[in-house]
Specification:
This protein is of the alpha+beta class. It has two domains: 4-154 and 402-475, Alpha-Beta Complex (Spore Coat Polysaccharide Biosynthesis Protein SpsA, Chain A); 165-395, Jelly Rolls (Sandwich), CATH 2.60.120. The chain is 16% helix and 36% strand. The chain has helices spanning 14-31, 51-64, 120-125, 139-149, 329-337, 344-347, 427-442, and strands spanning 4-10, 36-43, 69-73, 77-81, 91-92, 96-98, 115-119, 155-160, 165-172, 177-181, 190-198, 211-217, 222-227, 232-237, 243-247, 256-263, 268-273, 276-282, 296-299, 314-324, 355-360, 370-371, 381-384, 387-392, 396-401, 403-404, 408-411, 419-420, 423-424, 458-466, 469-475. The chain has an eight-stranded mixed beta sheet with strand order 26-5-7-3-1-2-31-30, with helices on both faces. Strands 9, 11, 16, 17, 18, 20, 21 and 24 form an eight-stranded antiparallel beta sheet that branches. A hairpin with a 5-residue loop joins strand 14 (232-237) and strand 15 (243-247). Helix 4 (139-149) packs parallel to helix 7. 40% of the residues are buried.
Length: 476
């Protein structure tokens, strides 16, 4: 017979714990047909909170209680609807949330926290959580990395992406860029198009955040960029420097085609990514900043003349264009499904009389220091420190994620201590991110060197009310 161990990492949230314990116990008695034990692991020292290590400690206690499966459960999520019964594959079971006043939470497809289920055998196979992520963030990303590396059963998702095999400029993320005479104006509606394939994300250890720019008109940048959370943003600024932006959900490191409609008359931007609409954003009567006053538009960087945050891009850029007027949804879809080994001007001739400027890497091999404008205008882009390499992409890309079992949970409001409002609250969160990307880029989670088998701790005291509730006060 199966037995469930609910493992809760905890420190200094007495009121939340009392509420959580009461409601969770009632929920499990009402919905579960197997025995269970709630194991709260209280970090009783003053070291930085170490969620992964606390969960490893709780898992060892769950084994002593002869649990056959466990759920690693945050104290600020109370189940309203959900299924906590056994699964023979890892599950993420907290994915929809009731807000607590203005306290809300949205999650990305790679989210593996909140309430996460493992069989005892699977969790031991990956050697549990890493003990080295202190503070907040990325211990769950590391957990998913271990599951992928050890071939635990995960859900495979497919993505239709721009498909091509061609010699294209490579931007090294340090000094590569293209400079183009700025032909954008803020009076008429325009569309931006860019097709690109990001390279490996390598966060800068000297910065607290990372942002990589595909194209930009600098100043208060009009730009398309993405960050080290794999989210893509288009942003422009109004004359009073108010930003207007749209950001995508998480997207794995895949080939991308972006189309952005900018309509100054209707005060609207519309953003498409790989043929699908990301969002529409309106603003009031204020006007867009006069970007036509900037002499250059850049590819692969926000502004190479800037010493602070130039935001260089690492990867390939296949083409870039600006069109007169907006591109409709059906046209966007047709662009995305075009043969990306050919210039857009050949596969979509109906757009040819609308190009304000179009730059395609197909002409690069004929040139030594410029990226040719194929729209008919004499406006060659100048290349700086780029190289040429074959970039090959499939029509369909695949990525694995945790299976999700639907679960609806009530949030309990608390102070956010991780990544908030575009910044990490503490440097330890940033260090966690740097560590995670080092392991990811090295294709080695180091699971055998760090986890259950290396988890050292001391139990300061133990509180046991009955067979359904245990609290461990631990020194980590």
């Amino acid at each position: 017979m199966n037995k469930l161990g609910i493992i809760v990492p905890y420190r200094d949230r007495e009121e939340q714990l009392s509420r959580f314990k009461k409601h969770l116990t009632a929920f499990l008695k009402r919905t579960l047909t197997v025995p269970f034990t709630i194991i709260v692991v209280d970090q009783a020292d003053r070291k930085e909170f170490n969620r992964g290590k606390l969960l490893n400690i709780g898992f060892e206690e769950a084994k002593k209680q002869k649990c056959t499966y466990v759920i690693f459960h945050d104290v600020d999520m109370i189940p309203i609807k959900g299924d906590y019964s056994y699964s023979d594959k890892p599950l993420q079971i907290a994915n929809k949330f009731a807000p607590d006043g203005d306290f809300i939470r949205t999650i990305q497809r790679n989210y593996f926290g909140g309430a996460t289920m493992f069989s005892v055998e699977d969790f031991e196979k990956i050697n549990g959580y890493s003990n080295k992520y202190k503070g907040w963030g990325f211990e769950d990303d590391d957990l998913l990395l271990r599951c992928r590396e050890l071939d635990l059963e995960l859900q495979t998702e497919t993505y239709r992406v721009p498909s091509f095999e061609k010699r294209v400029p490579y931007f090294n993320g340090k000094e590569s860029y293209v400079r183009i005479k700025n032909i954008f104006n803020t009076i008429r509606p325009h569309s931006f198009i860019a097709t690109f394939y990001p390279g490996q994300i390598t966060p800068d250890p000297n910065e607290i955040t990372d942002e990589y720019t595909i194209f930009s008109i600098p100043g208060h940048d009009l730009n398309l960029s993405f960050n080290s959370f794999n989210r893509y943003k288009f942003e422009l600024f109004l004359k009073d420097n108010t930003p207007i932006s749209i950001t995508s959900d998480y997207l794995p490191n895949l080939p991308v085609q972006v189309v952005v409609n900018v309509n100054p008359r209707d005060k609207r931007i519309q953003y498409f990514l790989n043929g699908k609409e990301v969002g529409i954003k309106y603003w009031d009567s204020r006007r867009i900043r006069l970007y036509e006053e900037e002499p250059y538009l850049y590819l692969g960087v926000a502004d190479p003349t800037r010493e602070i945050k130039p935001k260089f891009y690492n990867g390939h850029i296949v083409n870039f264009g600006i069109l007169h007027g907006e591109i409709g949804r059906q046209e966007v879809r047709k662009l995305f499904l075009s043969d990306h080994n050919l210039p857009i001007t050949e596969t979509n001739p109906e757009l040819n009389d609308r190009w304000n400027g179009y730059y395609d890497s197909n002409d690069y091999s004929k040139l030594t220091n410029s990226w040719k404008d194929t729209s008919g205008y004499e406006n060659h882009g100048e290349l700086f420190n780029t190289s040429l390499s074959i970039c090959s992409t499939p029509k369909v890309a695949k990525q694995t994620f945790p299976y999700r079992r639907p679960g609806y949970h009530q949030l309990i409001k608390h102070e956010e201590r991780g990544y908030t409002d575009g910044y990490w609250k503490t440097w330890s969160g940033r260090e966690n991110q740097l560590r995670y990307y080092r392991l990811l880029n090295n294709k080695d989670s180091e699971f055998s060197k760090d986890g259950l088998t290396t988890c050292k701790y001391r139990i300061k005291s133990r509180e046991e009310e009955n067979e359904q509730y245990i609290k461990l006060n631990v020194i980590t």
